Every structure is written in C-alpha cells, then in structure tokens.
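Saturday, quiet lab. Running sequence design on the structure tokens for the scaffold JK sent over.
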C-alpha cells in the first residue's frame, strides 16, 4: 500500500543528502590539512602560479600582471560559488539557501507527480517545504536530507489535517434514523462499501436498512440483496428501472416506522450522460434528506478520483469520502490529495473485499503508511 510513493519520497531525502548537504563530518578538518603540511592557502597559491605560467591562448597578449588579476577574479568567483553551496552550515547551525533547494524541490515535485498527487497539492507541498526551509538555520546534528525529510513530513501532515472525521462518534450522536447516501461512478466500490459500513453499524448493536436505489441494473439490486442476507438486515427494493428516489423514500419511511437506526442508500454510477446522473443524485438527496453524503472513490484512479469527487461535490454536495482498493494502490496520490483538494475528509479507506477490510482514516495513519519503516 502506497509503497511507490513511500520509496520515492525516501529517494528524495537520500538524494538531497548526497547532492546538497554538507554534513559536518564531511567537511575537511583544518588540522588534517596542516598535518600533511599542505595548507589550504599553500594549495591555492600553487594553483595560481601554475595557471600564470601557462596562459590560455586568448590571454597571450595580456601582461603577466593582467593575467594574474584575471586569475584572481576567477578564483574569487569560484570561491563565491563554493561559499554558496557550503553556506548550508553557519556558526550557529546550518543555513539553507533558496538556490540550494531547487534541486530537492524538483525531485520532490517529480516524485509526487509520478504518484498521482493532485497538482495544486504538489504545489502546496513544494511551497510549504520552501517556506519552512529558506533562510533558516538548523542544528548541527542534522544533515540536509534529514532536514528536508522533517520539512516534507510537517507540510504533508498539515495537508492531511482536513481528514479529521470520526464516523463512529458522528453516527452515535446523529438523529435517528440516520440516513447516509453513497455516490460515485460505477465500479468504484459503492455497494461493497455500503455492506462494510452496515456491518460496522450492526456490530455496534444498531439496526440498518439498505435502500437499493441503484435501479439502473438488475444485477445491482441482486448484489445488495445478497449483502442484506449475509448481514441479516432489511433491504428496501423496487424493480429494476424504478425511480431511485422512490426507493430511498420508502426505505426512510420504513426505518422511521420500525425505529431502525440507519438507512444506507446505494445509488447508480453510470447514466447516459453525467447530467442525468447528477440530476438523479440531486433528486434522491432532496427526497431522502441524507444526514451524510459519502463519495466513494477508487484510489487506483488517482487524479481522476479527485476530479470525480470534485464533480459530485459541485453537483450534489458531499460530506465525506470513502477511498477504496488501497490494498492495490502503490501510488497513494489520491489518498494524499483528495481531501485537501475537495475540502472534505476521508472517513474511511477500504483495503479489500471482505467486510472487515475497512480502516478509519486519519492523518497519523496516513503519515505512518508514508514514512514508517
Ligand atoms: N481489492 C479491492 N477490491 C474492492 C474494494 N472495494 C470494492 N472492491 C471490488 O470492486 C468491484 C466493484 O465494487 P462494487 O461495490 O460493485 O462497486 P460499485 O459499482 O461502485 O457499487 C467489486 O469486484 C468489489 O469486490 C477494495 O477495497 N479492494
Ligand atoms: Mg453498486
């Protein structure tokens, strides 16, 4: 799970260490140079002399004095460059220069884009890392790689903060019956997710009614019926092609009459046009008046899942996200960026087909998946 993103980030930290870091122990200690009898100054003088002795073709007509001046100028420029790259370390710690960060940020950008992280989130991570590092000094005990790692972790942790949604405590405080509507395109795992959440709610000693509002295919009604039998809960269904909002309405009425705790509304994901689909979702929402609308997205779809969530949110309005198939997702881009992009939390991730393959998402969990060994 998320292995590819995890190893890519690790590589960025490793690379940043070898490319731009000048750890204390790598700097040549001054005494060592003195011990060998070759001081830095002596070495510099030697090189100036030898360059003076062999003037370049275009310098033949210059006087010795002018050549010497030119060489000194070049030497100063070289030293200035060297100073810039070693300015990562100052007396009171390591100072990070903006220029030195460009390579690291580029590597970071490539790693994130390859993992399908949404572009605005890539930009935000880069900017966050830049802001937290430019012009700052860091304790001598750290290498640049470690500093970059700390900064990336802090920035990603901020980005994941939107994900605080405790479904269980929300559910226990919600009114009864609690109506939850599931939306998302076909095949993302809506019906499976409904069964998992039903199982979770039933496990807490509550009662559930399933609403078979995906009337687009007969197979969808059958699929939900099988789940209701396995779970031992009520299903309200009409025939295929029936009005999905009528099914949802009946399910809510049933729950009210029988004092059931929750109504989980399944919906269709494929219509002739997107406008039809969104209109149908809006109608179900108007009729069933859900307390929560959960968008179900397939993490393997990466950025497409983010775009789908955006479309459903704009048309129907979503409250939370359930991201499925993360057991097969090595990239992790959707998990990292969907909530931040849409501004709605990931309530759960789904990591397999069985009922218990459901994980309550939170930022620490994701941070652990991305950075813990
Ligand atoms: N590997 C894996 N497969 C899943 C997961 N969730 C759903 N699926 C599978 O994805 C397929 C589509 O799921 P379904 O619930 O019918 O999607 P729907 O069309 O949105 O209702 C089914 O074969 C599910 O078993 C998951 O978390 N991991
Ligand atoms: Mg379905």
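Result came back. Writing it out in full:
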């Amino acid at each position: 799970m998320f292995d590819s993103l995890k190893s890519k980030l690790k590589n960025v930290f490793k690379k940043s260490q070898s490319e731009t870091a000048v750890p204390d122990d790598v700097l040549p200690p001054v005494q060592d140079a003195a011990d060998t009898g070759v001081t830095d100054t002596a070495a510099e003088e030697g090189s100036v002399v030898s360059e003076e002795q062999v003037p370049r073709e275009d310098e033949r007509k210059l006087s010795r004095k002018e050549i010497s001046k030119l060489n000194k100028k070049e030497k100063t420029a070289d030293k200035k460059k060297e100073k810039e790259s070693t300015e990562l370390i100052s007396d009171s710690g390591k100072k990070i220069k903006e220029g030195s960060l460009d390579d690291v940020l580029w590597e970071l950008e490539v790693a994130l884009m390859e993992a399908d992280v949404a572009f605005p989130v890539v930009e935000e991570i880069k900017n966050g890392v830049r802001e937290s590092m430019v012009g700052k000094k860091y304790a001598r005990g750290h290498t640049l790689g470690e500093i970059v790692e700390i900064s990336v972790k802090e920035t990603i942790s901020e980005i994941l903060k939107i994900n605080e949604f405790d479904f269980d405590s929300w559910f226990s405080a919600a009114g009864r019956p609690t109506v939850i509507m599931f939306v998302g395109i076909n095949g993302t795992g809506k019906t499976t997710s409904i069964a998992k959440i039903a199982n979770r709610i039933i496990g807490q000693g509550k009662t559930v009614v399933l609403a078979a509002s995906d009337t687009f295919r007969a197979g969808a009604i059958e699929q939900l019926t099988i789940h209701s039998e396995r779970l031992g809960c009520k299903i309200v269904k009409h025939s295929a092609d029936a009005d999905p909002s009528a099914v949802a309405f009946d399910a809510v009425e049933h729950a009210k009459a029988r004092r059931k705790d929750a109504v989980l509304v399944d919906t269709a994901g494929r219509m002739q046009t997107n406008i039809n689909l969104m209109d149908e979702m809006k109608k179900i929402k108007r009729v069933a008046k859900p307390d929560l609308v959960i968008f179900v997205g397939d993490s393997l779809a990466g950025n497409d899942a983010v775009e789908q969530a955006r479309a459903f949110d704009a048309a129907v309005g979503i409250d939370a996200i359930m991201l499925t198939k993360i057991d097969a997702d090595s990239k992790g881009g959707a998990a990292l960026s969907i909530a931040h992009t849409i501004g709605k939390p990931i309530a759960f991730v789904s990591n397999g087909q069985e009922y218990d393959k459901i994980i309550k998402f939170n930022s620490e969990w994701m941070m652990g998946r991305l950075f813990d060994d």
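Notes for JK: The beta strands are 94-95, 137-138, 178-183, 208-213, 234-236, 262-267, 292-298, 320-324, 346-350, 358-360. Residues 20-59, 81-91 have pLDDT under 50 and may be disordered. Ask whether to fix the surface positions before the next round.
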